[in-house]
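ARCHIVE CARD
Drawer: 12
Card no.: 0347
Subject: one protein chain, sequence and derived structure
Cross-reference: see card 0346
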Amino acid sequence: MVATGNRNHTACLWNPTTRTMTGKPLHGHSRAVTSVAFGTTPDGRTLLATGSDDHTVRLWEWDPTTRTMTGKPLHGHSRAVTSVAFGTTPDGRTLLATGSDDHTVRLWKPASRQCLGILERRSEVHSLGGASQMLAIGDGEGVSVIELSGLDA
């Protein structure tokens, strides 16, 4: 599956082989969806995070009963969410990082929807990239990389 964000406040899931949309658009944001990222929980469940100009992140999970994605908002940023990325702690737990125009990166524990910490930046966060136990942050100062070890996830 591939996900896209739209100016019409939705995210869409796509089948890359057939190039067709899978299911209906995901509604929930009140402004443009600016960033999307897939993640997987340690038990194999698929997660989708969407960031929006409405200052929220929605964490979507596949519901096998309804065969749809269900999402609930994560609040905390005071300006547009510009980037979302998943990472993994050394013990295999999933983390979600969200970056914003409010000069912060927030680290979330998806299982409990708890914010584990806030990384203050000197400028707006433009992009995030998660890989294994690392998180790359792109902002007006350049790119920095942090290790996800030592976090109470």
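Annotation on reverse: The radius of gyration is 15 Å. The domain at 2-147 is CATH 2.130.10.10 (Methylamine Dehydrogenase; Chain H).
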